[in-house]
Amino acid sequence: MHVFVNRVEEAGRRVTFRCRAGHGNAVARWMGDPLPPQGTDAFIELTLPAPVTEWVPASPTASQDMAIGPAGVVVTGEVLGVGGPGDPVVELRVGTDVLLVEVARGGDGPEPGRRISFVSPLIEAYPYEL
Predict the structure, then answer these.
(1) Which end of the chain is more exposed for a tag (fewer CB within 10 A), N or C?
(2) What does pTM read for this prediction?
(3) What 3-state DSSP class applies to 12?
(4) 85 pairs with which residues across the strands?
């Protein structure tokens, strides 16, 4: 995912960023060394350390983006694909990128073509170079 790094906090290795195609800011724990310079672009892979257990339908016109909420990072995206039986991975388009999210299955899961929103208390950012 191509992001713009707005703020870097050495304590807790927290990085505030926004998707290059998005408007909201999100925060993640930076998992690489060194910390990125503030005010620069970075390429990251985002992971959620725990499966998503709750999500809500989002409006078909809702922005596919990430934003800082009171309980963590609010992620809104379009479901592109859902893993088969025994595969809890959901492909979620967020901005111009795809985020792979593990969901706890039980009852109805996210459906391809729909937009969903969920809150994650923690997101981890793993930097990479192209």
Answers:
(1) C
(2) 0.88
(3) helix
(4) none
